Amino acid sequence: MHPLGLVLFAVIALGSWYWWQKQPPEQRRSASWKLVLLFLVIGLLALAITGRMHWLGALIALTLPFLKQLLPLLLRFLPGLARWWQSQQRKRPQGQQRSGKHSGKNTSNANRMSREEALDVLGLKPGANREEILAAHRRLMQKVHPDREGSAYLAAQINAARDSLLD
C-alpha cells in the first residue's frame, strides 16, 4: 500500500475513534454501525480508484445497505420485480386452508361457460372423463398460475372451465 494511503487511513481511523469516544454510551451502538458503513464506503472507493474493483460493482455494493429504502422505487420502475414481490407477499404458510372461491365448487352463473368452450380452454376432446379434466387443469395451471408470474385472467378461465366440466 502507498505510504500516503496508510497515513490517510490512520488519520481517518484516529478521528473516527475520537468521534466514537465522544458519543454518549446509549448512542455508541448506532455510532459503531455508522463507522462500519463509513469504512466500507472508503474501502470500496479505494478499490474502485485503484482499479481493483469495477466502479459499477462498488456502486452496487454501496447501495446494498440502503436497499430496504430503495425497494419502493425499484418496484415502481421494474414491473417484473413488483409482480415477484407481490407473489411473495401472497404466499401462505404450508398447511393453511384456502378460502373463498377455491374452497369449493364455483356456483356463480356469471363465470359459466359452455361445455364446448370449457373443453377448448383445457385442450380436451368431447367425452373427457374426470381424471383427464383434472390432469389438463393441473398441467395448465402449472404454466399460468399467478404465483409463477402467470396471468390471473388465464388462471380464472382455466378454473372456470374445470368447474364447468365437473359440475
TrEMBL record:
Protein known as: J domain-containing protein
GO CC annotation, single: membrane
Family under the similarity heading: Belongs to the TIM14 family.
Mode of membrane association: Single-pass membrane protein
Location(s), subcellular: Membrane
Basic residues: compositionally biased ranges: 89-104
Species the sequence originates in: Marinobacterium stanieri
PROSITE patterns on file: DNAJ_2 (PS50076)
Main localization, broad class: membrane
Keyword terms: Chaperone, Membrane, Transmembrane, Transmembrane helix
Top-level division of the source organism's lineage: Bacteria
Domain J: 117-167
Chain intervals for the UniProt region annotation (Disordered): 89-112
Classification via InterPro entries: DnaJ_domain (IPR001623), J_dom_sf (IPR036869)
Pfam families xref list: DnaJ
Transmembrane residue ranges: 6-21, 33-49
